[in-house]
Target: Reverse transcriptase domain-containing protein
Amino acid sequence: MVAQPDSIDAWVRLLLFPRCTLQVYRPKNRQEYRSRNKKSLQQSSILKSLAMWGGGGDDDFTTLVKSILDVSALGSFGQGGGNFLEEGATGNTNIKQCLRKVADGHFTAAINVLSSSGVASYYDDTIKTLEAKHPYKPPPSMPSITYSKPPLVAEIDSVFSCIKSFPKGTSCERDGLRVQHILDALCGERSATATDLLKVITSVVNLWLAGRCLPILAEFVASAPLTPLLNPDNGIQTIAVGTIWRRLVSKVSMKGVGKEMSKYLSDFQFRVRVSGGAEAILHILNQVLSEYHHDGSLTMLTVDFSNVFNLVDRPALLHEVRVKCPSTSLWVDFFIWAGIGIVYRRHTYLVCHWGAAR
Model:
């Protein structure tokens, strides 16, 4: 793909690679399910898929893709988020999910699952709530300001640092690629091979930063399935899980302009990239209140905007990106091609997620 960045086939194969080769092995019988060789079975399954992929034949590639479609038709496609529960679904799904997390070694996630209220059922009210939280907006007009700087070029060390910055157990999107997959490949015994792989990953990241990914693929890279979680008060809280590629490029992009943006926003925000910023605000407010609250001469107003991130003015955002951090403009503009529209399916809710533009 690095050699043929204008080839849609190369980009599609990159996005399909983890789903075709890194699928979770599903035991075929009770003996395999109870076997202590589950890890070996998983390894054998991955090696078999990698051998088919590496064969380079179109028949092998078609077979792998067909296996994905067959699994999807059976309803077990959801490694990523975005799945609803069927109406009238029964069984303690929290315990089942907890067991899966324990089997994967994600013990913190397992504890969180046990205390979760679960996923909202597929009802019209659920869809309406998601619509309200992520309202439809037409694609914004592009800024008239021209690009004043060349695109950001990431270094190998920066990319590796961003890969390692993901929390342990970070979820994957529907392509099935996890950060742990990349770390396992990079930190193996053959350091020379790992270095070569890291160089290629850095080249791919720079292709995205330079706007070389085809716009037709923006919908698949920039969108993220939403999972509607139930709150204790029966309200709905949504989480969006984007692809690791999108999150990695966004991390690299933000790291590249982080110092400049921290300096620019130093008098306005105290949370992002500010060590102890929130604590400093709390101590200052307590000090001011202790000095002036006796005579009643001080009034303080706190404001919490409702759904502010999803209602932000997109043209204003894009304009500010080109003015304040133009080296990331091509990457942010790439998300415009995905549109702001929402795609509804029976078990999936996809939305263009703007996390990379922050």
